[in-house]
Design brief:
By secondary structure, the protein is of the alpha+beta class. Helix content is 53%, strand content 18%. The chain has three domains: 93 residues, Helix Hairpins (Orthogonal Bundle), CATH 1.10.287; 51 residues, SH3 type barrels (Roll), CATH 2.30.30.60; 81 residues, Alpha-Beta Plaits, CATH 3.30.70.100.
Length: 283
């Protein structure tokens, strides 16, 4: 029994010695490479942070949206760290071609599965870089219109005066005809006066009404012009410019103010009339 026990202990000691030898040999062989790889990764992290800060400074000058700036900075930082990680793997002697091939196959599968998402992402980057519209501007596209509430990499949100929101995927915007009104819009209010009205006086009254309304912009200069000689009235087009957020409120205010001003100046706003003549033989 003692001989068997001694033999077992000797085998275990020999195994431990072999493991120790292998560990020492591996440490001597790969230890310096691992240390160098760790140093490379640490340098990559520092370089990525520096690149992210540099890109952030450039993007701030471009006045991009804050979430977009943050995402682009992280992408740049990740690319820099990834390049240093490849250098670290090469230092360790890892074969990169099979790894890159495997990543390519997986990436192709993911791209096919997320084709719509990637389309929105690329379209979002196109919108952000070309800037056909910005937050706060009023646009019309795809039979939808509203004030741009937010622009993300995947969709654009329009807000309506009734407090509802329209979310449009970015891939539906790129390549479409877009009407950008900017931050101001021009109203087109039509008011009719009788044919015997002093038009100069009527136009002067409308001008006073526009100047008295604080929501109406005085620059650009509002347009007041005779637009149509209708059946029962001479129509005057009132076209002032207002801020986008005031656009839904102004028509009602102007209509009320113009009616009251015309009444105070005895300017008649006619209603439609028809003259009917009965022709026939006299009995």
């Amino acid at each position: 029994m003692d001989d068997k026990l001694d033999a077992t202990l000797n085998e275990q000691l020999e195994t431990l010695d072999k493991i120790q030898d292998v560990a020492i040999e591996s440490a001597v062989t790969y230890g310096p490479k691992v240390l160098v790889a760790i140093v490379i990764l640490a340098c990559g992290v520092l370089a990525g942070r520096w690149a992210g800060r540099a890109v952030a400074g450039v993007l701030q000058k471009l006045e991009l949206e804050p979430p977009v700036q943050q995402l682009l900075c992280r992408l740049v930082q990740g690319l820099v760290v990834g390049l240093f990680a490849i250098m670290a793997l090469q230092n360790l002697g890892v074969e990169l071609l099979p790894l890159i091939a495997g990543i390519g196959v997986v990436g192709a599968g993911v791209a096919l599965a997320m084709q719509g998402v990637l389309g929105n992402l690329l379209a979002g980057l196109t919108i952000i870089l070309t800037r056909p519209f910005r937050v706060g501007e009023y646009i019309s596209i795809l039979e939808e219109e509203g004030e741009v509430a937010s622009i993300s990499l995947f969709n654009t949100v329009l807000s309506h005066p009734d407090l509802s929101r329209v979310v449009i995927p970015n891939r539906m915007i790129v390549g479409e005809i877009l009407h950008n009104y900017g931050r101001i819009r021009q109203l087109n209010v039509i008011v009719g006066v009788a044919y015997d009205t002093d038009l100069s006086a009527a136009l002067a009254v409308v001008d006073e009404v526009l100047k008295a309304n604080p929501r109406v912009l005085q620059e650009p200069v509002p347009l007041i012009q005779v637009s149509t000689l209708a059946d029962s009235s001479i129509n005057i087009a009132v076209k002032p410019w207002v801020d986008v957020e005031n656009f839904p409120l102004i028509p009602s205010e102007l209509n009320k103010a113009i009616v009251e001003a015309f009444r105070s100046k005895a300017i008649s706003i006619p209603f439609p009339q028809r003259e009917v003549r009965m022709l026939g033989r006299v009995a």
